[in-house]
Amino acid sequence: MITIKNETIAEVPALHVVKDLYQLEQDIPTIFFFHGFTSAKEHNLHVAYLLAEKGFRVILPDAMYHGERYDTSSGVSRDLAFWEIILTSIHELGVMKGELVDRGMINGDKIGAIGTSMGAITMFGALTQYPWIQTAVSFMGTAYYEAFAHGLIHNAENRGLTIEEKMKEEVLRKIKPFDLSTQLDKLEGRPLFIWHGKDDQVVPYSLSEKLYEELLANYEDTPDKLQLLAEEKIGHKVSRSAVLKSVDWFIQHLQTKVSS
């Protein structure tokens, strides 16, 4: 029976999903799942269910200003806080992992990360900081922080938002250390699965294709550790085939025994 526990991990509201109740405290391969912009941890439970069935622990945190952490009285514009949310999630990943290690739930490097849209952008940034992430999956995200930031700024200004030059410069300065596209060597050959719909109007598919092509040379000796799955006539919505492929990817690269 799939077990879902709503708990706080390192002060972050999260869902903790495992196949059986006794696994909540066991040392088993663990996957952190980051949701998209304006979404929440509960919205990816269908993926967590499939992963848990295969013997993984899945941790789904709420990002800042999302889910249980959403506060309409804060006066914070989530549009303007986009990169603050991402950088906070990257930091919180390290803290959450530390607490799970202290609780005896993680011992070693059987740790994966997956994200959808903003969550995948978070995942790419986390790869620059945490070599203990053994394998990763991106659903319609991008590793090109600076290029995507310029696009977001342009779109926000087209909607009538005024963004001061100092704020733009500060955002670009803060995100620079997390821009994986400028430091691809930090992947160090770790398995990476990239999925993207070709008709995505939110996060351009071209950025995923570009990343894949730039990484090919780094994976010449291990081509099975890098894959791009592009789907025709799919917009900014994760397909079932993408979900199923991500489950297979973690089975292959987190070295877990498939549960019946």
From TrEMBL:
InterPro entries tied to this protein: AB_hydrolase_fold, Peptidase_S9_cat
> Which GO BP terms sit in this record?
proteolysis
Which residues are in the Peptidase S9 prolyl oligopeptidase catalytic domain? Answer: 99-255
Q: Which Gene Ontology MF annotations are present?
A: serine-type peptidase activity
Q: How is this protein named in the record? A: Esterase
Matching entries from Pfam families are given as: Peptidase_S9
**Gene3D superfamilies in alphabetical order:** alpha/beta hydrolase
Which classification does the entry list for the species? Answer: Bacteria, Bacillati, Bacillota, Bacilli, Bacillales
